[in-house]
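Write out structure tokens for HTH arsR-type domain-containing protein.
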Amino acid sequence: MGGERGDGRGGDGEAEARGELEAGEGATQDMSRGEGGDERGWQPVRQYPVAEPSPSEPVSLETVTPWLKALAHPVRLRLPRTLARGAHTTGELAHARGLSAPEVSRRLAALRRAGLLTARREGRYVRYTVNLPDLTALGSDVLEAVLR
């Protein structure tokens, strides 16, 4: 026969398309079983939202404005991306971005005043890193300040 499969069951593609296969036949039965041949099938996963403590007071526009001003310049927007990969000195950032050290220093100072960067002195060098808690909260804080 033209529609025979090697496993002894009929392989009629037209019958499969019409839904005429017997119950329990085919791959859907195997896929619906859990590990070890469990007959219950796939079990739903229930996820419940975790209640976050609400801030004591809503974020104001005056709080968010310095962050947005600090990120308004293209160079100041790109520097945190580089710093997110690890701590860098002013000279390293200047070399990586193809800028002068004084220009990078000015941009870093603006980001630091806004609280988006932290600085750590190591001998005669200062290593800058991204202030991750504040930077990750930036998006939700901006939305909260604008939408309230």
